Amino acid sequence: MKSAPGMTGQPQTMPLYRRVLGPDFDHLPPLVRALHDVREKSTWIGRADVERGTSILCRIIAALAGLPPTGAEQPLAVTFTPENGSEIWHRAFGQAVFRTRQVAGDNGNIQETAGPLRLVLARLTMKPSVTADGLSLDLVGLHVLGIPTPRFAVPVIVTREYDVDGCYRFEVEAQIKGFGRLVRYAGWLVPTQSSTPAT
Prior knowledge:
Elements: H1 16-21, H2 30-36, E1 42-52, H3 56-65, E2 71-83, E3 86-93, E4 96-104, E5 110-114, E6 122-130, E7 134-144, E8 147-148, E9 156-164, E10 167-176, E11 180-191
Antiparallel strand pairs: 1-2, 1-11, 2-3, 3-4, 4-5, 5-6, 6-7, 7-8, 7-9, 9-10, 10-11
């Protein structure tokens, strides 16, 4: 099932993924839909296995981006905060924090920015698609320090989200062409009691 165009006529108070996916949002599995139905600040907790790349370039990029370190069964807490039509994702892999902001882009895309404080190191353009078993996000564009990256140099980043046995599952894989894996992390999350996912 293909994703719908961005719902530009929808109010900014509507959750980001509902605006971007339109009617397709309601076809997501219940827990995937609940996680993305961000109407107020909420936190989900779980565990994740992380594998960083070993090439020098990948290690430098991972360090600059603040990506989590390699490790199995790391405690993970992700806090989602809606803010003026965007969402702030605060991921805590143990003591390592990785924070990004997501906003609606053009043509049904989602733009995600990463960088320390107010310096935007990278702006990723992701294409979300509702699949038979969940949600897929694929990188279709990248700006680094405001400069567009040539298509041949754009990393391959794929995110898959689904639910299994009443548990939200995710897999994220990022590779740099010619240099191999940048990072891969996969695991599970459940809402905390303070979270109020939609039913």
